[in-house]
Amino acid sequence: MSLALTSQLAELHLLQCSLLPGESFSFILPTDDLKEWSELLRNHIELEDSDFQSSLPASTCRFEVRVKDAPIWLEVELPRGYPMIDAPLVYIRGEEIDRTQQERWQKIVRNEMNELQQEKTEFLVQTLLCMTTLPLLHQLVSVRTLGHADTSSVTCMPSASGATESHSEPVYHALLTSHHLISSKKRRILQKWAPLFSLRGFAKIGYPGCIYAEGARADLLDFITSVKGFQWLALHVRFVEPLSGEHSGQFAEKREDGHSWVELERIGEVVEYMRRLGREQFVTEMGLGSSASTSST
Fold first, then answer.
1. pLDDT one-digit tens code per residue, 20-60
2. How far apart (Å, rounded) are the C-alpha atoms in residues 274 and 268?
């Protein structure tokens, strides 16, 4: 048995053991190939020391992972050279998603995979699924269940035709505050959601918590709905409104480091950040710092 196949079987076994309630794994292969891969996986410990060519499968491994009630799931194909040479292929599938939404989910998967590859993560697929995409799908289910907005919630993203004209749409921004923002899980998911919803902004961590985001109205509302899906202490949406001409368009000019979402630690940093954008009053009028605040706050 090849080293690549041994590694694939070990990772598939780890993936199955890592799944949480409501998550499922299944091969998507023709009958003969399904039988072969199922048998290999079932006996992979005994076959690890074998070099018999007969143990090599006729097809590459292809499987799907789903979260119960999620409208989106993932298909994964492991090329014969994975993980030594080839990269895995991960596809976004769904019954209720349009092309724009599919491309956004594909983008977040691609970005996360690039990060994991740069970090030389040992079990890349298992980490990608269990640490990033499956938690996001669980959150998607929670948001749909809570139904804060319309019944389709996060899945109601702009159509592909609308996306091509997004540059002519008005830019909206929103400010949310909470008693605190400490959870590493929340912080990590906010960082993942920003590119998913095509938003720019920041999260002020610690006490109090503060989230500021800018983007298309539909994306921003879906983002807020998703944020509400978490458990919060005293979460308030302070405003959601269009940016006036004097304030719109300045964000991209001020963000030259290539990052669309950042974390801040102090209220003074929030005020200074907004001051650089010419939007200082949007936070000071909400009681966050003052016009004389500095990063020493």
1. 889 999 999 999 999 999 999 888 766 554 444 446 888 99
2. 10
**190 in Cβ contact with 176 (< 8 Å):** no
Among all chains, which residue has been given the structure tokens 């035709």? 161
> Where along the chain do its domains lie?
3-144, 169-284
Q: What is the pLDDT of residue 90?
A: 96
Check: CATH 3.40.50.720 for 169-284? no
CATH number for the segment(s) 3-144? 3.10.110
Distance CA 175, CA 152 (A): 23
Q: Give the Cα separation of 251 and 109 in Å (integer).
A: 25
Q: What is the DSSP-derived secondary structure letter of residue 87? A: P
Q: Are 248 and 171 in contact (CB under 8 A)?
A: yes
Q: Which residue has the tokens 């830019």?
A: 171
Q: In what order do the strands lie in the sheet with 209-216?
A: 236-242, 171-178, 209-216, 200-204, 261-264
- Measured distance CA(266)–CA(264) in Å, rounded: 6
Distance CA 208, CA 205 (A): 7
59: closest CA among 86, 88, 79? 79
Amino acid at 269: E
Token pair of 94 as six digits: 């769904």
Strands (E), the chain: 23-27, 61-67, 72-78, 89-94, 171-178, 200-204, 209-216, 236-242, 261-264
Confidence check: pLDDT of 130 > 70: yes
* Partner residues linked to 72 by β-bridges: 94
Nearest to 137 by CA among 24, 245, 47: 24
CA distance 208 to 225: 20
Instruction: Report the alpha-carbon distance of residue 66 to residue 271 in Å, rounded.
Output: 42
**Residue 151 DSSP class:** T
